[in-house]
Amino acid sequence: MTLYKKILLFASILAGFSACQDGWEEHTSLNDPALNQNIMQEINTNPRISRFNELLVQTGFDEVLRSSKSFTVWAPTNEALQNLDQTIVNSPDRLKQFVSNHISYQQYFTHTTLPASFQIKTLSGKNILWDKATATVDAAKIEEANKYAGNGVLHIVGAPLTPRMNSWEFLNNTTLSPRQKAYMLSLDERVFVDSLAVQTGVDPVTGKPVYDPATGFVQQNRFFQRAYNIANEDSVYTFIMLTDEAYNAEFGRFRKFFATSTADSTDALTNWAVTKDLAFRGVYTKETLPETLISRSGVQVHIDRNAVVREERTSNGIVLVVNSLTVANEEKIKPIRVEGESIFDFRVLWLSHPDKVGNVSVQTRRSEVAGENYRYLRATGHSISGLWLRYVIPNVYSTKYKVYWSVINDFNFVTRNDIRALEPFNQRIVLGTLNATVFPYKAVAPSSVPVRQELGEYSVARYGNLDAFLRSALSTDNTINPLTLDYLELVPVF
Amino acid sequence: MKNKFIRSIARVVPMVLLGLSTFSCSDMLDIAPETTVDEEQAYQNIFDADAAVIGVYGKFMNLAERHVILNELRGDLLNVTANAAGNPDLLQINYHTVLQDNNYANPRPYYEVIINCNDVLRNFDKMVRENKITRIEYNQRYSDIMALRSWVYLQLGIQYGRVPYITDPLAKVGDLTDQSKFQKIEFEVLLDSLINVTEKIPHKDLYPTGSSLLTNIGGFNTEKFFVNKRLVLGDLHLWKGNYTQAATHYRALLETGASDAAKGARYYDQYRVSWQNSFNPEVGFNGTQNAVWNYEWVWDLPFTANTSPANPFIRLFANAGGSYLLKPSQAAIDKWAAETRSDLTPGDTRGGWAVRYQMGQPVVGKYLQNFSAALPFENRGNWFLARASLVHLRFAEAANRGGHSNLAEAFLQRGIKAVFSAPNLPATNPDVTNTQQTFLPAPYNFDAREGTYPFFRGDWYRHIGLRTRAGLQDINFAAQGAQDPLMIRVENAIVHEAALELAFEGHRWQDLLRIARRRQDPAFLANKVYEKFVKANDPRAEEVRARLMDPNNWYLPFKM
Questions:
Q1: Residues 348-407 of A with CB under 8 A from B
Q2: So where are chain B's domains?
Q3: In CATH, what number is assigned to the domain containing residue A443?
């Protein structure tokens, strides 16, 4: 090895040592002193928010903010907290909720990429609205932004972010509509959910699991499930509260459609019929109310602006207190349509002669709407005089109806004197009991499309299930005793 | 003396040894391989000849994927899925913009089969000369391979238009890369040559019962493995426009069932589209070799999980368990939906089996009846090459062009008996002695009489047309105000019916091309394909239509 080569080797080893001290480490090291502090220390050092600092300590959130999660804190200035409601200050629970409404997990900087208006969930469980365009959060102006520390970011805001009640809490905490409130509270129920329960053992006799009796129960409200969950913070609703005067009027109008054997069940049905259409998706103020709102059950409700006596923004929408509401009869008491083929799958149970189940079929035909088909039910070749199919129509209101059927006879071909042609046949609809004779036999004329015909009027005395029988002609001649039904419809007459 | 003798021996021994060594050279140095058969020894007896036939068909099965892609994706019933976006070869085929290096357009696999056939044919000649197989055995096998070669050449002509016609057994596939050595000939000339050689084959029927080739391979009866020579001849004549000859061959195929009526069901039902034992698309494509399968399928080669080549169709068609590259076109789905059954129910049930839905997407159901994504290695399947419906429609096409549109209508929809019954025939106990027959010259002379007093059961009395078998309403050809002549309307209906009946089975492009060539009407073909893209909302619809209006663009570029 020549001397030259030795020198070169030595030089390159030296170069390696010197490189160790350089570069990346310095380049990537954290040398911002702000990041060595946690956000609580940041708050401590800022005299503008010393009052909020006290509240944090008082409610124990100072410990939370020292932890190693990441937070965003919207801290109100001392001036903003001067006029804080004493009821909040004096109630530990409410104070805790108040303070936690200023803190969220995750870091939100003013330059964080977010939609122009963004809901942020705070530690109180409620959402606050971050509006980047106006640099406000829940209408409070951001005065100093993006003061960051090791575990979060601090914004100083010019007003307190007082948590609002949600619509359900508002209903519970007011006496504006006592009757509606009483009914809706009565819809509360405790439900056992086994997946939430703690299993403590197995019953040696039955082999079934034994649960800790204190676990597994969930408080629910039927209104939340069947209409809208107005206690849900993550969606917005317009909720109508009726004054007793308005509620009684609506109740009185609809009670006659729910006649049953007991007053209690009639009241329960009527209460539900009135209440179910009082919650809507979206926020509508008195000014922005559209002509009609559509409830979960598809009922169009018109709310008169002049009847709105109070408007209350809640954390999940708006509550309108209304002293007069008239939902149209046609909206709540809708026509009832039963498709002929609806009983096909279990026709053996609803057929006068279960052995004739093979004679009942569902036919598919091309609809007049291009690309669509419809289906109808028919019974042919059964050789039974007076064969009937029973339809049980549920939830029939106690009122007067016009009864229609839609029938098609594109199948009853009869060959006479070597000429094959469609012939009419007779059938009838019997409502209530099988021997009722309100609607007589009616001819079903040949047709290639379904024909809707009025059968007459029919009054239902009691709310509930109504039996309808589709009955064939009293003949065993298969050319005159087929049955066909596209649908049966009961249209209420008011 | 003694010394002299020894000396003389000593002189001679080296000479003898030298001489011996020269003789033994051939044996000592030329060692035959122990594990492979030399070409000279490959054709020793009938079993070697059978192995050669089966070997050619094994090679032939490599064509399955391209056969279905070229004949269906270029037509109007099959379309690409979004998954095919990364597969330029398929997109080129679909949009008729095929470039020379397209894998599916490479004619080499066709010529590999042809060169194989040429070699086998030469060796069969040699075997029969050397009395290694009998003349009868030779006739059957030689005819089979010759017919298969003609079928492959017909496909080449359909896909490429002008192709080299090679019958020289010494040619190798590699030679074709130098195209100057082999002159390409026109499609019409190719058809003449093919008709010439194929008509001369000594044996035009199936392998007879007892033949050593009718055996069981991998659990499958080999009966339907082999090309039907009548089908090849019928197709060649149909393409050429020799309608009577085409109809003669097709009819011979349709009547292969059994030799006499005493054979019962097989006689009346095999290939005759009868009301008994009729084909059921629900199970007809799972390849189970039962009686109904036997009565319908003319040519059907199975793929199994254990043999090569592997089933190529699952990858192409399955959404659950495959790559889902190709799907039924909306135009095809609409065709079935637009039909009405004779009981007025909308929709053609055949569509329900041709198109199934996997994970909400339409898939080609015909190739997937044996496949379940839960058992991905059980990829059994079939290459469906020909069945009775196809021959029915081809016969109808020939009969229609041969001037017998009402007979074509009988095959298409109502059956011979219904179409040729006298209109005033009484409904009960009619005397059918002088009716229910076509009274036409051969090959159009059908007897479909069914009477009790006097008793008749004509050879074709069970025949029903294809639309009757499918339960569809009849097309009314007597409708007033029709613009086209009856022959054109019936031909249009045959092409339409072929879409409903034979979709995805590898016949569509051939049908469209044949009719467009015959009518010299590019719009016939271009509009059908155009409709596929319009119904798929494909912005390239107009572009494809314009391209197909030029007959030069109907054929693929030929490059080995």
A1: 363-366, 371, 373
A2: 314-384, 416-462
A3: 2.60.120.260
Between CA B543 and CA B529 the distance in angstroms is 11
Phi, psi of B469 (to 5 degrees): -60, -35
Q: How far is B446 from chain A (nearest CA, A)?
A: 28
Find chain A residues with C-beta within 8 A of B344's C-beta: 363, 365, 410-411
Run of H or E residues at A53: helix A50-59
Q: In terms of domains, do A340 and A245 share one?
A: no
Cβ of B340 within 8 Å of Cβ of A366? The answer is yes
Inter-chain touch A365–B347, beta carbons under 8 Å: no
pLDDT in tens, chain A (494 residues): 566 777 666 666 655 555 555 567 767 776 777 788 888 888 888 899 999 999 999 999 989 898 889 999 999 999 988 888 888 888 899 999 999 999 999 889 888 877 766 788 999 989 888 888 888 888 889 998 898 888 889 999 999 998 888 999 999 999 999 999 999 999 999 989 888 899 999 999 999 999 998 888 988 899 999 999 999 988 889 999 999 999 999 999 999 999 999 999 999 999 999 999 999 999 999 989 999 999 999 999 999 999 999 999 898 889 999 999 989 999 999 999 999 999 999 888 889 999 999 999 999 999 888 888 999 999 999 999 999 999 999 999 999 999 999 999 999 999 888 788 999 999 999 999 988 888 999 999 999 999 999 999 999 999 999 999 999 999 999 999 999 999 999 999 98
Total domains, chain A? 3
Q: How many CA atoms lie within 13 A of B99 on its CB side?
A: 6
Q: Say how many C-beta atoms besides its own lie within 10 A of residue B27's C-beta.
A: 8
Q: Does the global pTM surpass 0.90?
A: no
ipTM for this model: 0.70
Same domain (yes/no): A244, A175: yes
- Domain for residue A11, yes or no? no
Residues A444 and A348 in one domain: yes
Final residue in a domain of this structure, among A157, A176, A199: A157
Q: Which domain holds residue A146?
A: 34-157
Cβ of A365 within 8 Å of Cβ of B344? The answer is: yes
> Cα torsion at A44, A47, A52, A53 (round to 10°)?
20
Report the residue of chain B nearest A415, measured CA to CA. Answer: B427
- If asked whether residues A390 and A485 sit together in one domain, one would say yes
Shared-domain flag, residues A185 and A324:
yes
Q: Which residue on chain A is closest to B342 by alpha carbon?
A: A411
Residues of A in contact with B424 (CB under 8 A): none
Residues of B466-491 as b/e, b for ≥16 C-beta within 10 angstroms? bbbbbebeebebeeeeeeeeeeebbb
Is A24 within a domain?
A: no
Three-state DSSP at B538 gives: coil
Test A363 with B347 for CB contact under 8 angstroms: no
